[in-house]
Amino acid sequence: MKAIYITIFILISIPFIGCEIDNHNQKVVIYAASSMSDLLTEAYEIFKQKHDIEISFNFGGSISLANQISKFDSPADGVIFIGEKPIRILEDSNLIDDEYRYNFLTNRIVFVGYKNSKRIDNLSELLLQNKQRIIIADPALAPLGIYSKEILSSNNIYNRLKKNLILASDAKSVLRSLENHNADYGIIYYSDFLLSKNLVHYEQIEEVFKYSVDYYMHVMKNTNNKKQADLFLQFLKDSDDARFLELISSRGLRRIKN
């Protein structure tokens, strides 16, 4: 009889044991701005040397990713977005855990051209080049697009350039198009320019270079992986690992003091 009780206890316990194991090994999913893709994948290689946590990333335009989470319940455990609009989308849907909110990095915006493109000294000169292709991120999908439209609109040339504009889904798509010379000029993040091989930075265009933008990190309210996601975000915010600090500085980024 005692053996029967033991057998029943084991059979009942197996599903719960299995659940604990599955939860422990569950992959943490981080939705992040595409401009962070290189830094985050390399940072994770450093992080996992000390932490047995599996992390996967979904990179894209921050606004597009925020809409995926809020409208379609995409399974994000944490987010690393640039600018305020994508964060407001999540806040309006009550999806962010207020206890786990962090400032991360500051980036800059630059105007660039393909290496063989004609030099320009101000944005108004683009109006004189009717055949030149200008690529920016889509304002509906990525914060970079919002900033790009704002920059061009402040110079009263956005509407006049529409026939020359190409819209890309996110920051990395803008970079790839420029690198492949599918466009002649574009607006990108400084960190992406430093990764480029075929682009020229027009530093003399001050109305672009003066822009700086911030990245924010949040853990989602309803995630089952809150501690694991937060451990990775804390690493990004505070780690003094020399390799990680070099990743940040080599991309022209700087940490935001909290």
Explained architecture:
The structure is a single chain. With 258 residues, the protein is an alpha/beta fold. It has two domains: 2-106 and 214-255, D-Maltodextrin-Binding Protein, domain 2 (3-Layer(aba) Sandwich), CATH 3.40.190.10; 108-212, D-Maltodextrin-Binding Protein, domain 2 (3-Layer(aba) Sandwich), CATH 3.40.190. Helices cover 40% and strands 24% of the residues. It has ten helices and ten strands. Strands 1, 2, 3, 4, 5, 6, 7, 8, 9 and 10 form a ten-stranded mixed sheet that branches. Strand 1 (28-33), helix 2 and strand 2 form a beta-alpha-beta unit. Helix 2 (37-47) packs antiparallel against helix 10. It is globular and about 55 Å long. Residues 1-24 have low confidence and may be disordered.
Notable traits:
ten-stranded mixed sheet, alpha/beta, D-Maltodextrin-Binding Protein, domain 2, 24% strand, 40% helix, disordered N terminus, 258 residues
